[in-house]
């Protein structure tokens, strides 16, 4: 039985070119990039080149890039670091109810420290309203944190419009662009965002590496205590092999972006068309015209997330849900609850399918037929 991977929004297979780029670094470049001798300088050159490539990918200056252990650390450094550095100007923070837990749990920790958090709702399209952001803004607002693309639904948020209303406000603007980076073009010269969080393993790079973009002049308190790496913003010896792999993943994505976008969109459409052909009852969660090419979140009436995922896995299809399954019970998706209300059945019968390098038209169609059979059986 062929296993079919439809969970690229969770993590992606490492591109062979990335592995090829990392191996020589593991084998030959073991110096500490902070050391002044030749071994350290060799590692430093790799680090500097990767920083330039990373910065160029979003139109930034290399001094504005902070390498991290991934998206979660980048989000935490942006949110908590910014809040701590700017609390003298106020303690009000704005975010949304549909953020990744890396953001939600970070602001919750600040809430426990006395900061005031406004959690904005979203409508049934899955997007936050710009007017709600504007209405929530106060003189003492110091940070607005809104993701660019939702990880569960793939819905693209109106980041450019929100950035425009924040342009003359004291608040820093942070966006988790983990799902958007690579497939969506981001240029910080045109988009006035102060802090952007990115993860390597979502773009066919290695796990354990990411970066935070910090616009020059943005105040940030370091969360780690140690050496003076990353311009004193993130202590600790840099993970040079992973950063090299991350750089290679960025280059591959840059050179193939349009091809990937077209392929992933085609896979998603083929998947949906096959479900319709099999006469499966389903609805797509969120506005399809605001959705990333690679993600679709589907509600299957009369079914249950946990049972579906188990059956999909047994048939060789890997997908996921925003619901947390523990001890036989299912916690409704916080994203779908924000969209439809916590009592709506879509919060516990919806599955996220996400497409990427592990897919081709044949295995996508095969997966859709397997999913159709299982859904039909479970909804009887």
Automatic annotation (TrEMBL):
Tell me the cofactors it needs: pyridoxal 5'-phosphate
Q: Which PROSITE patterns does the record associate with it? A: AA_TRANSFER_CLASS_5
- Stored InterPro entries: Aminotrans_V_dom, Aminotrans_V_PyrdxlP_BS, Cysteine_dSase, PyrdxlP-dep_Trfase, PyrdxlP-dep_Trfase_major, PyrdxlP-dep_Trfase_small
- Please write the reaction equations for the catalytic activity of this protein: (sulfur carrier)-H + L-cysteine = (sulfur carrier)-SH + L-alanine
- Any idea of its EC number? 2.8.1.7
Q: In Gene Ontology terms, what is one molecular function of this protein?
A: cysteine desulfurase activity
Family named by the database record: Belongs to the class-V pyridoxal-phosphate-dependent aminotransferase family. NifS/IscS subfamily.
Upper classification of the source organism reads: Bacteria, Bacillati, Bacillota, Bacilli, Bacillales
Q: Describe the location of the Aminotransferase class V domain by residue ranges.
A: 4-366
Q: Which Gene3D superfamilies match?
A: 1.10.260.50, Aspartate Aminotransferase, domain 1, Type I PLP-dependent aspartate aminotransferase-like (Major domain)
Q: Which UniProt keywords apply?
A: Iron, Iron-sulfur, Metal-binding, Pyridoxal phosphate, Transferase
For this entry, the protein name equals: cysteine desulfurase
